[in-house]
Amino acid sequence: MRYEGTVYRPPSEAGSLIIQLTIGCARNTCTFCNMYKDKKFRIRPLEEVVEDLEMARSYYSRIKVRRIFLADGDALIVKTEDLLYIIAKCKEIFPEVERISVYGAPKDILHKTPEELATLKAAGLDMVYMGLESGADEVLQAVKKGVTADEMIEAGKKVRAAGMILSMTVISGLGGKKLWREHALGSARVISAIKPEYVGFLTLMIEPGTEMYDQYNRGEIELLTPHEVLDETELFIRSVDAEGTMFRSNHASNYIPLGGTLNGERDKILGQIEISRRKSKFRPDVFRGI
Ligand code: SF4
């Protein structure tokens, strides 16, 4: 396989065939993110992508490929007709494929019409991963996400209306000590409005090479302690109303694993938080990772 630079995918795509439809992130402005800082964004020529699919087929000639993830950062920026072509090729070359998924940036979702999204779903695009990061406008602005909480809601609702599975991520601690309440309550508001199938919590890590790293070193950002992260998560869990949404906080960056289905398992999750608070046993920072 030929991959350009470091390739990222959601943890739940660990067993998927990863094909780069785009290189990098078209925005690349988020102050906390270093994923694609070394890449200049471009959409790959479609024939190259098809060559990759064919190469993968010959490599996995005896293995059934059930899932394909179209990387890099925001494959939904690609024109709908080109996406449809690539999805058709995925299905032609891997007739056994059961799920095709992408990262979807909110602005790219908003640029597509409901009909385009429905056509993509009908063609086989089953799942979209969308980074909410925070549902608080103050935080989104501070980290230069380039989108408002209301735009996130609109984008998330569009994906759900098209019948695609939506998985969203929130970053614990992203508002720092100053905005943790706004961050928790704003994120609960957005998730309640969208009710995605999945919401996953990561925990902020300050990565070298990011704008946030410099802000942190200048003392402009105060990180939450593990106990404060628990307080923030608790406020989110108590405030969110998203019946059926599966909540997970079991990423390598998290201090403790949490999980349950909202709203029914709210008390169970709150119980996990309380036990963790009392035990005070957190994953050491050296073992945390993105
Ligand atoms: S968080 Fe997402 S949108 Fe922001 S720079 Fe990273 S990949 Fe791009």
TrEMBL record:
User: Record's InterPro entries?
Assistant: Aldolase_TIM, BchE-like, Elp3/MiaA/NifB-like_rSAM, rSAM, rSAM_sf
Pfam families under this entry?
A: Radical_SAM
**SMART domains reported for this sequence:** Elp3
Any one Gene Ontology MF annotation carried by this entry is:
metal ion binding
Cofactor(s) recorded in Swiss-Prot or TrEMBL: [4Fe-4S] cluster
The answer, when asked if S-adenosyl-L-methionine is one of the entry's keywords, is: yes
What PROSITE patterns does its record include? PROKAR_LIPOPROTEIN, RADICAL_SAM
Stretches assigned to the Radical SAM core domain: 9-243
Q: Which UniProt keywords apply?
A: Iron, Iron-sulfur, Metal-binding, S-adenosyl-L-methionine
Note the PANTHER family from the entry: ANAEROBIC MAGNESIUM-PROTOPORPHYRIN IX MONOMETHYL ESTER CYCLASE-RELATED, RADICAL SAM SUPERFAMILY PROTEIN
Could you tell me what this protein is called? Answer: Radical SAM protein
